[in-house]
Amino acid sequence: MRSWLKPLAPVAFLATGACFATRTDVRVLQNDLAVMRQEAAERDSRQRARIDSLLEVLATVNDSVRAANTRMAAFQVDVREDLYSLGQNLLTVQELTGQSQRRLQELRASLEQQQLEIQAAAAVAPAPMPGDTAAPAAIVPPQPGPNQLLQLGEDQLRRTSYATARRAFEDLLQQYPEADVAADAQYWIAYSYSEERNTAAADSVYALVIERYPQSVRAATSLYRRALIQRERNNLARMRTMLEELIRRWPRTDEAILAQDLLKQIP
Description:
This protein is mainly alpha-helical and 267 residues long. Among the domains are: 99-120 and 143-197, no CATH class; 214-267. The chain has helices spanning 2-5, 9-97, 99-122, 146-158, 162-175, 182-195, 199-212, 217-232, 236-249, 254-265. The longest helix is centred in the first third of the chain and has 89 residues, at 9-97. It is rod-shaped, with a radius of gyration of 47 Å. The model is unreliable at 11-15 (pLDDT under 50).
């Protein structure tokens, strides 16, 4: 019996050893798989973290783009409004502070003042002679000239004393209806009403400027301001008609350029 088992001993040993080697390989393989799963999980985690970070960056960029678009739209609106306001301010500055015209007017007013002083000196009654019982003649003070009245009214406009300014302009129109500054006086009366937000009176007087002084530079400005009043009233059809008339009648004026810009804004 023993002699029979001896030849089988090496075979049994090899079979047992092979079994042990297979289990070890399995454990090694399982460990390798576990390590691979851990590394894959870590890679997936890092990948998800990068994707989440990219999504956050993308969301931030989208928010920034939307905010930039909103700001750009608001900026474009502000630019259009600023350009419109700039046009109005330039027009007002041109009207109130035109240096050449104002200087000429000041010179005319100065000449009128000198003439008044001469007239006042000539009107002084001589001293009564001894024994003269006649009553001295009444001295009529000289009246200010049209340029003086215009300058007085414009000074009151700058002080926002609109009622006082109108009285000066109305005196000018009453005393010197044919003066070369009559159109200016009529225009400033309308302007004073406009500054007081009395648009009905302003519109009516602007219409007088156009009717009575169509050759004056104030006519185009008056029609332009009438169109602005229609804009405030949301009467866009009437506004368009006035602007088109302005461009047709006074095409080479600054107001015609402003009118063309306004026409582009009418829907």
